[in-house]
Amino acid sequence: MKYFTILLFCFNFTFFQNINAQWTNPDLTLTGRQILCFAKNDLSVIAGTNGGLVSSTNNGQSWTNTGAGLPYSNVRALLNVESYPFNLLAGMVSGRISMSTNFGENFTAFPAESEQLPFLADINCILERGNSSNFLAGTERGVYLLPQYYPLSTWIPINTGLPSAETKVRAIVEIDGEIFAGTNSGVFQLSGYDWVERNGGLTNLNVTALISVGGYLFAGTSQGSVGGVYISSDNGGNWTLSKPETWVTSFLVVGSNIFEGSMGNGITRSTNFGISWVPINDGLGSGAYNVMSLGTDDQYLFAGTNGSNIWRRPLSQVVTDVNEELNIQPEQYSLEQNYPNPFNPTTSIRYQVSSIAQVTLKVYDILGNEVARLVNEDKPVGSYEVDFDASQLSSGIYLYKLTAGNFIETRKMILIK
Fold first, then answer.
1. CATH of the domain at 405
2. 411 vs 54, more confident
3. The pTM of the whole model exceeds 0.90
4. Strands 194-197 and 207-213
């Protein structure tokens, strides 16, 4: 009887673990709204919707309306800010941006009601440039710059180099001080006050999402026969298709995990800088596969949908390094001396990759004959270690050669039996 009880407990524990290992939508009051963006602070998480701003102080268990003073209810962009007399910006339709000093409870115009953007310039994204007081707004009518914040600052259009002043700008990111914009005409890099096209290999130019991760640019596209997630390791000079997708809506980075939201296919995750993607849609209802935005707090991952509420899932289920930062990108390729050396019969070889590349690591005998192929695949930025087993080889001197892009290096090792 005792044995049966233990088995029953184990079954129930496993059963409930499996039930809970999925997405849930505990609050159904947002049915019918489009969930367009997220922001968070230490106490709460807020979401911008086409029906106003909502806030949760219990990790998304319930949501309440907030945002007194917003001139429009269609909130399309949110930005946390620091070192100002305000801590949150909200971008809306009709070219309106508002600021809050209490994280979304109340808002006033940013910078002032008399200094707003053109009426038709719906706000899609807001960026604060690093180490400056400059703000950039991506809109349905190009990019606008606020050179410095003060109450009577004026937004200035900066659209030279874009196909037209009506270019739709969906995302703006900064990487190592450089500014990139994702638009309905591709990706552009800001040079001074002019934009330079960066679309080499980008076969779908309708960019709907853009992020920077570990030295790479990730562009999400939509509405095309060749669409999906594209990756560039050279600031948009060259793009490669990482994941076919009909309509990418959003990206989110947590540690070394990249999440991608889409209209129709839910959420996928990559843990290797886009080399592979895995769906994480367990528990989503059919309507929840139309994901419009992604967000997070310290405990949950949130998916904002097109009319099917906000869904949440514990980060512990989908992230293995919640509290870890992304690994720092190696500054150069390198191949280290194997250890131990001499060896019998196994040894370890370490190498570093500074940008995504096709990597091969081969072993040759002293006559130049290939005797082993240890690595032959695409590798993201990172440090690696591979073991070599020479138990089938005879004693002698061997060479191992690393090839990664244009980088080639060869070292010598000695097998003694």
1. 2.60.40.1930
2. 54
3. no
4. unpaired
